[in-house]
Specification:
The N terminus is likely disordered. A hairpin with a 4-residue loop joins strand 6 and strand 7. The chain is globular. The longest helix is centred in the N-terminal third of the chain and has 10 residues. It is of the alpha+beta class. The strands form two sheets. Strands 1, 4, 5, 8, 9, 10 and 11 form a seven-stranded antiparallel sheet that branches. Strands 3-2-12-6-7 form a five-stranded mixed sheet.
């Protein structure tokens, strides 16, 4: 199920509650367990965090300060959250990741309708162009925790994009990006 990116983002919790119904037969969505319906539903629910608390910045869509949408870890974790056991290809082991469905984050960001790819940049300047057709597919997660713990910067945190094993992009290691710092239209 893909959430529409419209100028007036609808409540994010409603699509998340409908996810189990819409995902019948969709293996990637079935691999995800809802942890929390969250309290963030629109950009109005995310005031600009203190500069020291910003972990992720979005450009080209909704804003909460200086033409950008800046988010703290606490704000991300106040969104609808899910959990999935994922085979982490760089560690070659299963990890339980918790985070926000990427499609829900992008719905909050409210990118223009003509955007079909987002340019993601890590803290170390590593960049990945992520097609929205991949990001909007159930099973793409903006992870904030691994095995119950916040993800440290030296371990690829504080945020990273992961895919459930059933997601069509799970095997494309080039699309996995860690220590994510900024996201904007490509």
């Amino acid at each position: 199920m893909s959430l529409p990116r419209t100028r007036h983002a609808a409540l994010l919790a409603v699509p998340l509650l409908l996810l189990p119904l819409a995902a019948c037969g969709e293996d990637a969505a079935a691999a995800v367990t809802t942890v929390s319906a969250g309290s963030v539903s629109t950009v109005d629910d995310v005031p600009a965090p203190d500069e020291d608390d910003v972990v992720l910045t979005f450009t080209g869509g909704a804003t909460n300060t200086d033409g950008e949408l800046r988010l703290s870890l606490a704000q991300l974790e106040s969104m609808p959250t899910v959990e999935a056991t994922v085979h982490e290809p760089f560690l070659d082991e299963d990890v339980v990741f918790r985070g926000v469905p990427l499609e829900d984050v992008l719905a909050l960001v409210d990118l223009p309708d003509d955007v079909d790819t987002v340019h993601t940049v890590a803290y170390n300047e590593y960049a990945v162009d992520l097609p929205l057709s991949v990001a909007d597919t159930p099973g793409a997660i903006l992870a904030t925790r691994a095995d119950g713990e916040e993800i440290a910067l030296e371990d690829g945190g504080p945020t990273r994009v992961v895919f459930t094993d059933e997601h069509p992009a799970a095997g494309d290691e080039a699309l996995w990006i860690w220590s994510l710092a900024t996201v904007g239209p490509a």
